[in-house]
Structure formats: C-alpha cells, structure tokens
Design brief:
Length: 282
C-alpha cells in the first residue's frame, strides 16, 4: 500500500502524530496513550469537523455529506469502493492526508456491507436499511464523526453508562445507537441484525468473546471480524473453530486496512489496524 504520501510507520505513536501536527488533537487523541485517562466515547469535542479532524487543512478531510448514489441507466445504486485510492479520488482528497488511519473503521464496515456480505449488498441496492451490530467498540466511539454510511448498534462493556441507549443521527443516512453491556445479554432487546461486525477484535485475548460467539452460532447471522496481524488471524481461527463456527470467509487482506504500520511489542511483528478480515455464517 505505497500510494500514500505521509509517513506510514507509527512505532512511536506520539512522535508519528507530532510529525503530522495532529498530536493530542481532535479524534487523533485516541491514537496514542496521552488521553488514556479519558474513557472511550467521552472525548470532549468543541464541535465542527475541523476540530474533530485535529485542525487538518480543509482539503485534507472529507465533508460530512454522504456519498451520493450513482445513477446507472436511471437506477440508483450504492457506490462500490474497492481500495483507498478510489475513496480518496471520490472525495478529492490528497494522498498526503492521514485520515485513512481513522476512516479504516468506517470504510472496512462499508466494504463488508457492499462487497463481502451478499445479503446486505442486496438490501443496499434496493435502498433498504441495513442493521449492523457492532461488537466491542472502543476508540471508534470517538471517531463517529468520521463515519457517515450506515445504521449501527454499537454494543460493548466499554460504552459509557451515560451514553448507553442514546442514538445519534450523524447524517440522514447514518444513525448510531450505543448500548453498554455484553452482547449475549442484550441481544434480545436489540433489533436483529443483518450483519455482525467486530473490528480489531483480538478474539484470542478476551475470554468474554465465548458467549457472543455461542450466540452468533445460534442465530446464524453473518459475522465478520478483523484482526491486526496474520498471527492474530491464526489464533482467531482457532477460537472460532473452538466455538463450533465454520470459517466461510477465509482470512484475506483488507483493502481498507489502515496504511499505518504499528509495531506489536509482544510479538515484535508489524500490525495494521483492520489488517485482515475473516467471516463465519457468510
Ligand atoms: Zn501522545
């Protein structure tokens, strides 16, 4: 992924952000440990896209207008994006803009809904609502201004109590409802999803995935997971198989992974946010 013209190696996140002039600013505050005292979802924002994007130049971040559907033969259809350069072109963004690092989450979900999940793609083609259950959001809660695409229920133990149950309409085409709790306990109260996603989920690291995976197996809804490195993918496959799930979407590189390389201190291997995608029940 050598198309970008900003430094793409962030072994020291603070230094990387500093080199781009966005350290401790806007949504980037969740990209290093400097704001780790601030619970996910509760970063104070002054308001405005310019602040959210940490004062980047106006031409370096996308406006908040949703993608316009393309008209083909008089029929409106969603724009299908297959790589970052298409997105940057569509939004007329310079390749020096680092926003791909934050937009990786929304674009990965968009890619799953429009390219990997046939069911949700068909719904979008018919301009019907797609309901996504998003498991275990953390920093993404503070990056919601960066989204703008879909209807999502984000559920996880990290959702702050005072935000639980709130719905925010970020644009006419995107609503997010936040729910604090554990998926398998809350699922009966939630709208039944067309697709379940969990990003950078580190399936091998959290024992509480077990209950959620049992439920995914029971309801048979397509579920997609991203992991940051191939080793984590190998571990995730074992965890999924151990839960009795069959991997129907094999591990593939995600075209909308973050281009920014991190050094995983425990394994000393490079990793990328949303590096690889795999799926079950697909
Ligand atoms: Zn920092």
């Amino acid at each position: 992924m050598k198309i970008f013209m900003f430094p793409c190696s962030a072994d020291q996140p603070c230094k990387w952000l500093e080199s781009l002039g966005i350290h401790q600013k806007g949504m980037w505050r969740m990209k290093c440990s400097c704001y780790s005292h601030c619970p996910f979802g509760l970063l104070p924002v002054k308001g405005g896209l310019w602040d959210s994007w940490g004062g980047l130049d106006e031409e370096e971040y996308p406006g908040d207008l949703p993608f316009r559907n393309q008209l083909r033969d008089g029929i409106s259809s969603p724009i299908l994006l297959s790589c970052w350069s298409e997105y940057y072109n569509l939004r007329s963004l310079p390749l020096s803009s680092p926003i791909a690092d934050i937009l990786s989450h929304s674009l990965t979900i968009y890619y799953i809904l429009t390219a990997l999940s046939i069911n949700s793609k068909n719904l979008l083609l018919k301009e019907k609502e797609v309901i996504v259950t998003y498991l275990g959001p953390e920093g993404e809660m503070d990056w919601m201004p960066a989204s703008g695409i879909i209807q999502t229920v984000m559920i996880g133990p990290e959702v702050p109590t005072n935000l639980s149950g709130t719905t925010s309409g970020i644009s006419s085409r995107f609503r997010v409802k936040l729910v604090r709790g554990v998926y398998q306990e809350e699922a009966t109260y939630l709208p039944s999803p067309h697709v379940i996603v969990a990003l950078n989920c580190a399936l091998d690291r959290y024992s509480n995935w077990g209950g959620a995976l049992d439920l995914i197996k029971a309801i048979g809804v397509p579920a997609f997971f991203t992991e940051q490195s191939e080793i984590l993918c190998a571990n995730a496959k074992q965890v999924l198989r151990g839960a009795g799930l069959r991997i129907t979407h094999p591990v593939t590189p995600n075209p909308f992974r973050s281009p920014v390389k991190n050094n995983n201190s425990s394994t000393n291997l490079h990793s990328y946010s949303n590096g690889f995608v795999l799926g079950v029940n697909t």
